[in-house]
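Let us work through a complete example step by step.
Step 1: write down the sequence.
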Amino acid sequence: MLLEEAKALAGEGGKLVVVVARDATVERREGKRPVVSENERRAMVEALKPVDEAVLGYEDMSVDKVLVKVKPDLVVFGYDQGCLEELTRRVAGEMGLSVETVRMAKFSLSELDSGTKIKQKIVETWKPTG
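Step 2: predict the structure and record it as tokens.
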């Protein structure tokens, strides 16, 4: 849903490029390494219908490097990425770039709306009984 809306915001002929967090970034933010590797996550995201390209971010969370690499007109953030949105807006301004930012509202069509919830469901479903 988020990716479909982001693609729609790109407009006719717009390209949706998704930046996938590096394993080190996920570990730093969540306190544990992801189960699925960064290259596998990038490939899975790129295979999604609305996504034109998925790229790995930078381990040092370098917003300026991402802006230079992707050259976006519009950057769409998830509902919980307010700090990153503010940082991106500030860095883009410092670089003299005209980049629009949009933060999407939270929505969920199912109880499995995050990687953490999916992992919990797997553990609950496949946990040995007895």
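Step 3: interpret the result. The chain has one domain: 2-126.
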